[in-house]
Amino acid sequence: AYKQGGNRYECYQEIWTTKDDDQIALENDLRRALEQNEFQLYYQPKVNLKTGKIIGAEALIRWIHSKRGFVSPAVFIPLAEEIGLIEPIGEWVLRTACRQTKTWHKLGLEMLQIAVNLSGRQFYLPDIRQRVLEILLAEGLPSCCLELELTESFLVEHEDSSIQKLNQLKGLGLQIAIDDFGTGYSSLSYLQQFPFDVLKLDRCFIQNIDQNPKNKIIVEAVIKMAHQLNLKVVAEGVETTAELNVLQQYQCDIIQGYLFSRPIPAQEFQALVESNKSL
Ligand code: C2E
Ligand code: CA
Ligand code: CA
Ligand code: CA
């Protein structure tokens, strides 16, 4: 983009203009993505470390853009939050995930649980409890099979109301997981204040844990503490057998990561469960 002979200022301007246009184009495409059926849910298996069996999945949204191909949710979810689209998208994710899981139950895969990510804006909708309940009832999914994953980052500013909200949601009989645990600022006081059921240890603690004595110490301590607080622990981003072995040694409950499987389309996930693949 750097033109010979052009001065710096012009060059920057050109770059920014291009970025702006691209951003606007992406926003416009995102506004149409739902009705154009460009979203898909992928499912990443969650595996019980004791039995080695798949116990369920995390639903992860994919946007298959007609020209750009796969656009990362790390890019478009924050954008959707910003431009007020996260509510319909989040609702679509929740409904699709619940419907799919119910379909699997009907096919005899009875025990499967589904974890769905909830964005901050979704969580703070005044009628979020009602919306979740409506979807569970409409899709016929038992609430105990649904887990909502929240990140601590958006719980921070509104402590009282978030505790109330969490309790309202838990009142439906579903599970609440704290996602990306350890990456925020006040993780420990969160465990004390908020009624979580599941703690998801962020990938940054798991990566190369076998070679990193500090991470080992942290993970061992967090798992012990979580168990004493009656929380189940999910390790995210497990990529190697060496990492797995350490987690096994520390009695982590559930693992998720490329070692077992990447996130995959519904049909592939079903085939994987039916094949009885285990760790
Ligand atoms: P997350 O909730 O922390 O999801 C885990 C991310 O780690 C996923 O990225 C997953 O594909 C990736 N991952 C899983 N195992 C491994 C591994 O072994 N190694 C590595 N390197 N990565 C692994 P993904 O699907 O790109 O999603 C990124 C983020 O976008 C998610 O992070 C979540 O914050 C957000 N997101 C995805 N789907 C949704 C959704 O339906 N709703 C909302 N609100 N956010 C979503
Ligand atoms: Ca998650
Ligand atoms: Ca996570
Ligand atoms: Ca994350």
Automatic annotation (TrEMBL):
The EAL domain, residue ranges: 23-277
Protein's name according to its UniProt entry: Diguanylate cyclase domain protein
